[in-house]
Amino acid sequence: MSSGADTKRAFRWTRWRRASQLLFVLFFLVLPLTNRAGQVEVLGTLSSLQVGAIDLVDPSAACSTMLASRQVSSVMLGGMILPLLLALTLGPVFCSWICPYGLLSEMIDKLRLRGRRRARRWRQLSKLRWATLATFMLLSLGLGLPVAATLSAPRLITVLPLELFFLGRASAGTLTLLGVLLAIELLLPRRIWCRALCPVGSTLVLFRTPWTMRVSWREPTCQPELLGANCVQVCSWNLDSRSMIAEQGCTNCGACVEGCPSDRRSLHFVPGKAVDVSDGRTIPVLNGRHEGPAQE
User: Roughly how many angstroms between the first and final C-alpha of the chain, as a whole number?
Assistant: First the structure.
């Protein structure tokens, strides 16, 4: 079991992550007030945000919009650079450290844990993820409407304060779409929107590389009989950090690091990725060598 010092270190991940999530919630609650007071240096939502001369655009929203308009926009391409660099280096941390809807989804999931409903295996849901993302993009192209941008949960939840402050009420479209998302959270498998349906997270997962930060583990300090079930239980996406592949969409939230009783794993940059072997098992590879046993 971990020592007191190890336990303290493990809990820093959630503490800092919650602080980050709450800061972004506060930022988008205060932003309409500052805009109304005349501040125009920072404008927008988590789908498209202007900070001075810098444009930040959600890659899924940008792709959807360009497909809908059938035009390539240099502004949107430039606005995608920083979000994509974040995903390339740290993984899809936007989902677990920044997105206010992700925080809401986690809170709902904690309530649902009382029912002990387990998530489905990712090998099934990863196919749903790619099919859904492709459908959103094809609909954008065919209908001439930015479907992925319209259905973006980060956009919906950050445009709501703007509508309340400047229109005096939330629009019917925003309320309807948020209502649909909440119904999905409550009625369908655990966190399925974030895990497999959200175009924002699905697009960011596409940019995970072998050099993107991920959870690593090492055989000498990992005790499968002690940690195996625990790894999966603490993850709201039902992932086993010892046998993940890039397409499974881990957001580097750190829950499995905290949930490890021996506190032997850590989040860090690793130039390697998990690979499948012929008998259907998965072996994590670090720096060109196996660091753990094959997992069923």
Answer: 25
- At residue 289, the 3 state secondary structure works out as strand
What is the pTM for the complete model shown? 0.83
| Residue 4, phi then psi, degrees to nearest 5 | -60, -40
Phi, psi at 86, each rounded to 5°:
-60, -45
Q: Tokens 């939230």 sit at which residue?
A: 253
Question: How many Å apart are CA 106 and CA 260, to the nearest integer?
Answer: 20
What is the average per-residue pLDDT within 253-276?
59
Provide the pLDDT for residue 92: 93
Report d(CA 142, CA 145) in Å as an integer: 8
SS3 101: helix
Q: Quick one: three-class SS letters along 26-40?
A: HHHHHHHHHHHCCCC
State how beta strands 214-216 and 266-268 pair. Answer: antiparallel
Residues in the chain: 296
